[in-house]
Design brief:
alpha/beta, Rossmann fold, 2 domains, 8 strands, 40% helix, disordered N terminus
């Protein structure tokens, strides 16, 4: 909703009559289209410039306002918007009331699914809990292009999808009334993407905070490297041409590629403050991945907060999930302040 309010102080009787006779009755009528909104603003400007210089100067000198234009934005939700050309490059955006380009920062959610499966719908419960606890942020829940053999690898394409999302939101910041500063929150494979994007690809420092919920951080860990499907999975997930000029062959013989894809080895002093949630008995992502990343970030002097819970791969009880929500809220207030 867009509402135009024009306030004039110390106007003559004739000026007041013009204001009440012609301008105020048009206030609701003039709000129906974007073009007419601009016309309403133009009317206000014409009225203000029609006043004599003396009246304007005297009003300003008396610290009164000549005219005031105010906007009141209601909360809004838009679903399945495009941020790229691929059918999977879509997102939902949840915009808070009274948002602005000066204050409304953006939280971006990244779903899990092993880089080959999953959908943003899997993060809808996080949308609800985050918006309830952090009502002043905009929230974006995005899909990325899933890996599919033989022609659609995950890496680096999915990292680039995050970049495209940030580019799109930045270019639309005025129309959405958001401040293009971002916090990434990912779960499982999405957490790996969030960490990796912040640590390796965020050259413009647009990401200010990153949260990993059971995300892999080190693919050199024996849990991965000793998996009998290791090489097959890497050949599906990794675009060899993006990392090497020639064919990569058996990727388990190229440990540098594995390190390139592991956030543990990409973390630097420029990494954003990092929040970590992991399960002590996780059989999908070994908890040592979390401890090793915490140690690395502490060594680098990057703010990091690790939470390890009883349970496995995000199969936590209600009490634990409430702790996750509360901890996330506190971390955002400290490192992603509005």
């Amino acid at each position: 909703m867009f509402r135009l309010s024009v306030y004039f102080y110390r106007l003559s009787v004739v000026e007041c009559k013009i204001l009440y006779t012609f301008v105020l009755p048009l206030n609701n009528l003039l709000m129906k289209t974007n073009h007419i909104k601009m016309a309403a603003l133009a009317v206000a400007c014409l009225l203000s410039t029609a006043c004599s210089k003396e009246s304007i100067d005297s009003t300003i000198n008396d610290t009164d306002l000549v005219y005031k234009v105010s906007t009141e934005l209601e909360s809004a939700v838009f679903t399945d918007l495009d941020y790229g050309d691929h059918e999977q490059q879509i997102f939902d955006v949840y915009l808070p009331a009274n948002r602005s380009t000066q204050t409304t920062k953006v939280i971006i959610l990244l779903h899990g699914g092993g880089w080959m499966n999953g959908d943003k719908a899997g993060m809808n419960n996080y949308v609800q809990s985050i918006s309830e606890s952090n009502p002043d942020y905009a929230i974006v829940n995005m899909n990325y292009v899933l890996a599919a053999a033989p022609s659609t690898p995950a890496f680096p394409n999915q990292f680039h999808d995050i970049g495209l999302m940030l580019d799109h939101l930045t270019s639309e910041s005025e129309s959405l009334q958001i401040l293009p500063e971002f916090a990434l929150i990912g779960k499982s494979a999405g957490a790996h993407l969030a960490l990796q994007y912040d640590y390796m690809y965020d050259l413009e420092d647009r990401v200010k905070s990153v949260t990993s919920i059971v995300g892999p951080t080190d693919f050199t860990h024996p849990y991965y490297s000793e998996n009998p499907n290791y090489t097959h999975l890497l050949n599906i997930l990794v675009d060899s041409n993006a990392y090497f000029a020639s064919s990569i062959g058996a990727m388990n013989l190229k440990p540098n590629v594995i390190k390139i894809l592991s956030p543990l080895y990409q973390a630097s002093v420029n990494s954003s403050p990092t929040l970590l949630f992991y399960g002590k008995n996780d059989t999908t992502v070994p908890v040592k991945n979390a401890y090793d990343l915490e140690e690395k970030l502490n060594f680098l002097g990057v703010p990091v907060l690790l939470n390890v819970f009883e349970g496995g791969h995000n199969d936590w009880n209600t009490e634990t999930n409430e702790h996750v929500s509360n901890t996330l809220t506190g971390f955002l207030k400290e490192h992603f302040t509005i």
